[in-house]
Amino acid sequence: MKTRWEEKLEDFKNVLDRLDEGLKLDISNSIVVDGVIQRFEFCYELAWKTVKYFLDYQGIEEVKSPRTAFREAHTYGLIENGDDWIDMLTDRNKTSRTYDEELAKRIYNKIKSSHFKNLKNLYDVISK
Fold it and tell me: NCBIfam families this protein is in (predicted)?
């Protein structure tokens, strides 16, 4: 039987694959940008929840928010640069609260250039 964190890890892998799929599409259609941003939001949510359940499994139970999860993940060696994850949190919050086409394009470019790599690296480290 799988633990809760293993279930979350599997879900995280699935949405990460879907994000990767979206990033390979032509962005001339604005719906692709919107879809990638939505998939990024799903990935970010599952990333922090996977970290929360993993750390809980390791006996670290005080994780209650994304910020705490990624601070602990950095301490535990699951992620390299905590500031990148705070930047992702900021972008995730911006995309979920308002829609601005220029902002969407900037965040899409950050997802493609760095956020996806950070999410993928977390998956690679935590899945070992």
Answer: HI0074 (TIGR01987)
Residues 116/39, Cβ–Cβ less than 8 Å: no
Domain that holds residue 108: 4-127
| pTM of this prediction exceeds 0.85 | yes
pLDDT of residue 84: 93
Q: Look up residue 1 and give its DSSP letter.
A: -
Q: How many domains does the chain have?
A: 1
Handedness of CA 110, 116, 121, 122 (dihedral sign): positive
Q: Is 60 left (phi over 0), alpha (psi -120 to 50) or beta?
A: beta
The CATH number of residue 52's host domain is 1.20.120.330
User: pLDDT of 18-37, one tens digit each?
Assistant: 999 999 999 998 899 999 99
